[in-house]
Description:
Structural class: alpha+beta
Amino acid sequence: MGLGSILQMEPKDFPAWLEVLLKEKFFNACLDHEDVKKNEKNILCIDCCLSICPHCLPSHNSHRLLQIRRYVYNDVLRVEDGSKLMDCSLIQPYITNSSKVVFINERPHSRQFRGSGNFCYTCDRSLQSPYVFCSLSCKISDVIMRQRGLSGFLHVCNFLHLTDEGATSTTPSSTLEATESDGDVGVDMFWCQALACTASTEVVRKKRSSLSATCRRVTTAVASTNTEAPVNFFNRRKNTPPQRAPLY
């Protein structure tokens, strides 16, 4: 069951904020603050069913707010935050900035591989034990298919505020918890190593360049001294009468 099938449920069974969470393209620029820096829409207002940016917060201070984050170029939310609204158990988590996060939507499969271990009940992605869902949308699809509704999945949450780090962290440095290999993570690590090597090479080049310049200056000074010395010596010999050894 795909995202389209999920959204075909009756409005009374499927809350509007959850539909926005699954369909919204987060981290696009906020049109109300398009001339301001850090205007990415990375917050979901549960009460308004609207994605907002950090500059919109003064108008939503008393509302329930859910922080959206980025991990490996995909939208994620913290397990601690998401568990206040819904059942996030059995969804494989990842670690970013010392916090567990789960993917909001199913990710494209990079390769078709089916070995031993657990697999997502919805999309067959390889997972670690004991997890059986790769994303929030995959679990919602399974719950709807089994229960024909979201009874028991959604939690009552009257207060939901942003964490201390708030909306300032949009693209945190992340580390992969699962053993499943993600190509994007490998690429990021490769470029980090390449940049480090480039920086080291530049430092060595600068040191060699400054050393070469110093050597050239010393060589020029020595050469000029060596060429002037013989000339002065011969001039003194030319203008001075010869000195003979005394006769005894």
